[in-house]
Each structure stands twice: as C-alpha cells, then as structure tokens.
Amino acid sequence: MDTQSPFSFLGRLAESASGLMGKLAPPQWLVHEGQRRMVLLLNHVVMQEAEAQNRLARQKERVVLARWRQFEMRLQVTPAGLFDLATAEQTPDLTITVEEQSPWAMAQSAMKGDKPTVRIEGDVQLAAEINWMADHLRWDVEEDLARVIGDVPAHTIARAVRGIANAARGVVDKVAPAMPGSKTGDEQKRESHTS
Q1: What's the rounded Cα separation, in Å, for the pair 30 and 26?
Q2: 122 and which of 94, 98, 169, 194 could share a cystine (Cβ 3.0–4.6 Å)?
Q3: Which residue stretches belong to region Disordered (predicted)?
Q4: 24 burial class (0-12, 13-18, 19+ CB within 10 angstroms)?
Q5: Would you say residue 192 has pLDDT above 70?
Q6: At what angle are helices 151-175 and 141-149 packed, to 10 degrees?
C-alpha cells in the first residue's frame, strides 16, 4: 500500500499560494517602497567591501534588470560604485532572470545554501562583476546587530538564529522528497553529473 507523506499537504499549499501570488499583484507604491529598501540593503553590503565598490564604479551608469515571475527591478550603477533604482525607460545592459518559479523550491535551495538557477543576457563584463559580488559579498548581520545592542547579545542572538536555520535545513531535507515537484538527492546528483 502506497501511503502519502503527512507533509505532502505543505507542497499543495505552497503551490496554491504560488498560483494565487501570480494572480494578485501588490500595489505599485508597495513594490516601489520594497525596491527602495532592497537598494538600501544592497548598498549597505557593498559599502562594507571596498573591492566591490571599485568593481562597480568601473561599470558606472550601466543598468541591470533583475526578474522573477511577475516582479522586475531595474538597478543603475552609480559613479560611487553603489546601486540606485533605474527608471523603466532605461534600457538594461544586463538582464538576470531567476528561472525557478516556485517560491517553495527557491526556499529549499536557499536553505541548502544553493544559488537559484538564473538566465543571464547582456554585457559579459557587468555579468562577471555581479557574479563576483554574489560569490564574495556577505551581509554580516551579527556585526550590524552588535553596533546596536552590543557584542554579547548580538552573538547570542546570531547563535540562536544559526541553530534555528540548521533545524530548518534538517526539516527541509526530510520534507523535500515528499513535496510535489521536488527532486530527490539521486536526481540532483544525476543532474549535476550531466551538466
């Protein structure tokens, strides 16, 4: 007798929510405000690494279009080596499209520390700089938190969050095979050997 995993309902729920998300669009003001906050976070991380700013400064005035599902964000590189929102009229020099459509599958990949599959079109040098940043820049949340609440509390909170993240990874590893559309470990190994 073939029994279903008790977690299979999570997959169906995630897929239903994903379909609903595609039909409902957030208001434009909310999208714009969210994008402004993402630019602030990106710039905060970039400013912590002088090499990243130098690399970006060489690409000044270039425009990057990032896409996922129905969401788009245009970023322009400033002469200071940071990002700013670009207007919709500006032609992108580089387009980065996240191929994975399922938020659940993206969350699984993120929990495993994997990068999402992307399609890149456009300027090769700009793509190389963005790839370097993706490989080398990390947001040191613990350090930022320590500036606000002190070293010991920040370290304690960071350690607790790492423990929660490790537990969540364990759950994802156990639940993932039961989710619709998920790949088993063997399928992922075969896929990585064929590419």
Answers
A1: 7
A2: 94
A3: 176-195
A4: exposed
A5: no
A6: 140
Task: Tell me: pLDDT of 17 over 90.
Answer: no
Q: Is the pLDDT of residue 153 over 70?
A: yes
Q: What residue ranges do the domains of the chain occupy?
A: 26-102+113-138, 140-186
Between 177 and 165, the more confident residue is 165
Q: Which residue has the tokens 């459509």?
A: 101
pLDDT for the residue numbered 22: 59
Q: What is the architecture of the domain spanning 26-102+113-138?
A: 2-Layer Sandwich (3.30)
CA 113 to chain centre: 11
Angle between helix 28-47 and helix 50-57 axes, rounded to 10 deg: 120
3-state secondary structure the chain: CCCCCCCHHHHHHHHHHHHHHHHCCCCHHHHHHHHHHHHHHHHHHHHCCHHHHHHHHCCCCCEEEEEECCEEEEEEECCCCCEEECCCCCCCCEEEEECCCCHHHHHHHHHHCCCCCEEEEECHHHHHHHHHHHHHCCCCHHHHHHHHHCHHHHHHHHHHHHHHHHHHHHHHHHHHHHCCCCCCHHHHHHHHHHC
pLDDT confidence of residue 102: 82
pTM to 2 decimal places: 0.65
